[in-house]
Amino acid sequence: MRTWWTRALAVLREMEVIPLQPNADCYNHLLNFLVQENKLKMAESLYSQMRSVRVQPNAKTFNILIKGLCKASQMDPALDLLKQMSSHHGLVPKADTYNTLIRGFIKRGRMEEALELWKGMNSTGCIPTNMTYNALLHGFCNQGRVDEATRLLEEMSGTGLYPDTVTFNILINGFCKANDPDRAMDLLDKMMQDGFKPDVFTYNTLISGLSRIGKFHEARTLLDEMVKKNCVPDVVTYNSMINAMCKEGKDGKLDDMVKFTDDMLARGCIPDNVTYNVLILRLCREGKLYRTMRLLREMQAKGCYPDSVTYNTVIDGLCKQGRVEDAEVLFGEMDNHGVVATLITYNSLIDGLCRAGRVEGSN
């Protein structure tokens, strides 16, 4: 990076020597590069140099710097730059500038300041876009303020803007997080009535939301509908269903969980750590350690490497059934594979060794 940066800066300085005055665009190329490389201090230094040689920044200059400051969580300096655009340079910020700042404030949980910026847009005649409203809706939903999100959606429609797929997905996710899947399902119906096609994220959000509050059969019905509409389930879809079955804890569900895994593979969807960890947890709970160990080895053979959650679950299951030596073998395997043991790992082993009357083995 240093070589390219040095060479680009040398070209800029050569222009000054010729003399050929660089314009804002020359600096903008370099500023954008530095911001993308997370070299904010260097970008700020270059901006100071730009000002010292009396090159007037343009709107793009400010957009680049504001984006960099937001990326670095420096929201107050970013807001100061927005004010400087109009007060010092006579530039009118456009929607993309406001959107960058609004998203930045929301990401840091500063929702009220994001709302103030939105109101400021309206007062300066800068028209908010779908991206503006989507960011604000996302902020409300993240804070569980779904009723305010609903009112904002109504206000959005009153401005002549219409919800898009992203808008619906944000609201559906918000209602699911608020454990209100009925209103989320109403939004799914409205989404389709308005001519928008639900995507895999839409279905995954709803399936996860329904599963989380124990509505497994409704989630299964939605999965069937998803497949009928040619929306291909992914690993997140299947993991939500498998996790729901695990929580149901009814007899026979284990076989259904395994069938879901087979269905995943048949559709070319590869199980991940989450899939295997849920299955292994259920097997351990039922004391089926032979199947647990077989699944652990199958997981490794398929290139899906166990993490600390996997090992902790199996080690705990082995210790509870008195198979402490097997648990110790897995503990050694963890170290060999670079998986860091946690407090849970050690507690399980110590408890198992104590039960087996082999406390000296924990030293």
TrEMBL record:
The record, for Pfam families, names: PPR, PPR_1, PPR_2
Matching entries from InterPro entries are given as: PPR_P_subfamily (IPR050872), PPR_rpt (IPR002885), TPR-like_helical_dom_sf (IPR011990)
Query: Per UniProt, which keywords does this protein have?
Result: Repeat
Q: Does the keyword Repeat apply?
A: yes
Q: Where are the PPR repeats?
A: 23-57, 58-88, 94-128, 129-163, 164-198, 199-233, 234-271, 272-306, 307-341
Q: Which Gene3D superfamilies match?
A: Tetratricopeptide repeat domain
Q: Which domain of life is it from?
A: Eukaryota
What family is it from? Belongs to the PPR family. P subfamily.
Q: What is this protein called?
A: Pentatricopeptide repeat-containing protein
Q: Which organism is it from?
A: Taxus chinensis (Chinese yew)
